[in-house]
Amino acid sequence: MRLELSRRGDYAVRAMLALADGGGLLTGPRIAERTGVPISFLPQVMGALVRAGLVDGIQGRTGGYRLARPADDITLLGIVEAAEGDSRRMTCILRGGPCGANGACRVHEAFFGAQEALLAELASTTLASLAR
Asked: How many domains in the chain?
């Protein structure tokens, strides 16, 4: 069983931590420098975070990125889903498609219960708690 973020999700979490640690406006190159995120990939990641309402992107010579709201109001689940989309698995863990025609497969409740517990943990973990 694998539990890992995509590269995009990893970069989004790193960028958000840099913004939380930075305490203000950071340029793209500064975020890339602090996080190790390739500068060529950073606009895609930051664009997803801006569209999700987690980050403000300020245009212009003195522009950059900053958190759109307090770090206490941003969850790890929000960051991951901004980068990767909905985290809920909608397919059968055994078959890779919908569960059987006669209802859920025999392991459905165990795996979907574990998924909900994981999502609840990510939803209760704030950016502020990670940045401390």
From this structure: 1
Q: Is residue 50 in some structural domain?
A: yes
pLDDT digits (tens, 9 = 90+) for 56-86: 999 988 889 999 999 999 999 999 999 998 8
Please check whether residue 14 lies inside any domain of the structure. Answer: yes
Cβ pair 76, 122 in contact under 8 A: yes
pTM, 2 dp: 0.87
Q: Tell me the C-alpha distance between 16 and 42, whole Å.
A: 12
Terminal C-alpha separation, the chain: 30
Residue 15 CB: number of other CB atoms within 10 A?
Answer: 27
- Find residue 105's DSSP bridge partners: none
